[in-house]
């Protein structure tokens, strides 16, 4: 039985009942916070919960770089019942039935005016949360602490952290350090001077998702890492410059790869940008490398992400045994930037733009005529 001085909420997915039991394995390992309302709820959530018990993370695994996961993970963070959730939030395996249904075709949804306003709202919130998370990046801070800060900021905005329980992802943000390409799981490892870290923030608000990420230096970093981060940002910006009605999605990859190769970097091929609105991931697929076979032509009302992952060495990747963390095959560093974009009648609106970033391409203060672009 649970002995505690204050009432605790059950940590089962989607459960808001008062906790009455505590995981016996967690007690033995001195892991706090693992509370459940009943044996049935505990058994139902065991496939996800058991990951916190890993105190030694496969020491003989052939890691490609110097980074190691630091277990056990902290217990799953709770989301108040008042907050609207995506369909996968309470699914035992985190499966989105709506996304599975949508995969049956390659139709790219055109958002109406009301949907566009909802997407603008959630993307504005996502940008606010990323900036809050970025302010915590410094030597000595754990990625788990960054996850806590971001989780709480999302809840304060009456939103759900989109990664949480998405196909059983255990945290509220992806934190990818050094050779991690994407989908790094926040843990107890402290950031150290010279690291680079990508924060990938996604949230769900009133039925719509917003998604963006940026890579940050931890203290003073080496020149090679500075160049990598700049190249990754430039790759995204040059791709955004191309977004307009009539442009083929498959042609974005050539623009990105050309810039990456010019800076002696490579482009990851395993992961791509994606459509986003009511669904977290949907059509179109947006590969970031040249000579891809992506389907679709951009139209006003299309909403999607571009998120090139740029490596210092090979583009090949491998996965850690957690089935999420993707790392470079040669252990060299990787950087990434991402925006959620809306195709407009004349170009693109960058829905997740920061305070010092452009929001529209082309600039709305210019007009195109038969002599070229003229300032208004």
TrEMBL record:
Matching SUPFAM superfamilies: Creatinase/aminopeptidase
Swiss-Prot/TrEMBL keywords: Aminopeptidase, Cytoplasm, Hydrolase, Metal-binding, Protease, Zinc, Zinc-finger
Chain sites annotated for binding a protein: 183, 281
Residue positions binding Zn(2+) 4: 211, 274, 307, 338
GO cellular component, one term: cytosol
Binding site for Zn(2+) 3: 200, 211, 338
Location within or outside the cell: Cytoplasm
Protein name: Methionine aminopeptidase
């Amino acid at each position: 039985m649970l002995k505690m001085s204050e009432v605790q909420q059950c940590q089962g997915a989607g459960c808001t009942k008062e906790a009455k039991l505590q995981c016996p394995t967690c007690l033995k390992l001195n892991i706090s916070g693992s509370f459940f309302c009943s044996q049935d709820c505990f058994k139902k959530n065991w496939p996800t919960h058991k990951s916190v018990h890993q105190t030694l993370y496969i020491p003989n695994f052939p890691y490609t770089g110097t980074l190691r996961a630091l277990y056990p993970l902290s217990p799953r963070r709770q989301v108040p019942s008042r907050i609207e959730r995506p369909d996968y939030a309470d699914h035992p395996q985190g499966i989105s039935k709506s996304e599975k249904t949508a995969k049956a075709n390659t139709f790219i949804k055109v958002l109406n005016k009301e949907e566009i306003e909802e997407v603008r709202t959630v993307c504005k919130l996502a940008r606010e949360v990323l900036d809050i998370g970025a302010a915590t990046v410094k030597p000595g801070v754990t990625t788990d602490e960054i996850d806590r800060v971001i989780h709480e900021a999302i809840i304060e905005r009456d939103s759900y952290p989109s990664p949480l329980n998405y196909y059983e992802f255990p945290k509220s943000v992806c934190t990818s350090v050094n050779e991690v390409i994407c989908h790094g799981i926040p843990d107890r490892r402290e950031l150290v001077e010279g690291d680079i870290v990508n924060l990938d923030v996604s949230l769900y608000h009133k039925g719509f998702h917003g998604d963006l990420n940026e890579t940050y230096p931890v203290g003073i970093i080496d020149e090679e890492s500075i160049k990598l981060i700049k190249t990754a940002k430039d790759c995204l910006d040059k791709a955004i410059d191309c977004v307009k009605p009539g442009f083929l999605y498959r042609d974005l990859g050539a623009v990105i790869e050309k810039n990456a190769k010019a800076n002696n970097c490579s482009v990851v091929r395993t992961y791509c940008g994606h459509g986003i609105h009511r669904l977290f991931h949907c059509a179109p697929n947006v590969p970031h490398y040249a000579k891809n076979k992506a389907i679709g032509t951009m139209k006003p009302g299309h909403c999607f992400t571009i998120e090139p992952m740029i490596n210092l060495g090979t583009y090949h990747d491998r996965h850690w045994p957690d089935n999420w963390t993707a790392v470079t095959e040669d252990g060299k560093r990787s950087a990434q930037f991402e925006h959620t974009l809306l195709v407009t009648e004349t170009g693109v609106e960058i829905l997740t733009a920061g305070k010092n970033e452009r929001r529209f391409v082309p600039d709305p203060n210019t007009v195109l005529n038969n002599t070229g672009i003229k300032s208004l």
